[in-house]
């Protein structure tokens, strides 16, 4: 950050929160599993925001772990002739990444 006098200041923000979007085909059985989790967590606030989402890319060895994940809302469902994917959106409290390499 640079002030009006031209002097600078660095700002360290420890915020590691973010958003995770999972896009699934309408025919995926995972939609039924996520809907069951959504319904359970919406009914009991003690369960809300306790999800962990792990993404692992095997080719490079990248691993991303998202903790404290909560459903943002039930996905919008479309019944068009040409279906759109079902999007499940999560708010993540902390996202940590370990990047691998392509060797």
TrEMBL record:
Pfam families listed in its UniProt record: Phage_Tube_PhiTE (PF11681)
Origin superkingdom: Bacteria
Protein's UniProt name: Putative bacteriophage protein
Organism for this UniProt entry: Candidatus Glomeribacter gigasporarum BEG34
